[in-house]
Known about the structure:
Blueprint: H1 9-14, E1 20-27, H2 35-45, E2 54-56, E3 62-64, E4 73-79, E5 82-88, E6 94-99, H3 106-113, H4 116-123, H5 127-148, E7 159-164, E8 167-173, E9 181-189, E10 192-199, E11 204-209
Parallel strand pairs: 1-11
Antiparallel strand pairs: 1-5, 2-3, 4-5, 6-10, 7-8, 9-10
Helix pairs in contact: 3-4
Amino acid sequence: MKTTDGHVASKVAEHLRDDEIHVWRLAYSHQQGRAPLRALLGAYLDHAAESLQLIDSEYGRPELAAPHAGRLGFNWSHSGDQALIAVARDLVPGIDLEQLRDRPRALEIARRYFSPEESAALESLDLEARSAAFLELWTAKEAVLKALGRGLAFGLHRLNIVMQPDRLHLQWLDHDDAAQWQLQRLHLDAEHVGALAWRGPPRQIRHWTLAAAD
């Protein structure tokens, strides 16, 4: 595996530092299943992808089974023909990706599942801006809940996120200290939105894109 700028993925993986999170973007199809995720994790662990076993946690987050359990923190998300994978040491990141599309029921869904403050923020926007903002809020919430290890079953209303021009801000998280969390908007392209979250101090985010397989 190589990056679009010619780096070998295993060499990139060798240089993952304890104060970094590596975020990978790649082309993806549902027929691949978890094969791309296992292949990239294999590059970090210096093991063949076929030797890695992935299991689901109680709430569905993929984890490495023994004997590799706990050696890496990772998460992934896919939407349309794209996927994102986050890899780190000594923390479990949460990442989410959505393909931008019209969401005519965005306000209805927000009023039912989001916090009142988030719903009010969406209501103040015109229809086109509202769809994009709704998906940005959705990805940010999903990223936090994935990092938390709970997923959507935890409840989208149990965290409040403020969208600011320069950043996303986790203002409140039920039964946790939101100040201990990091939440970052991922700048991808005009067709996708993404977010990355983790509990812990700030880390440097390094972005890589995998080249399509020959």
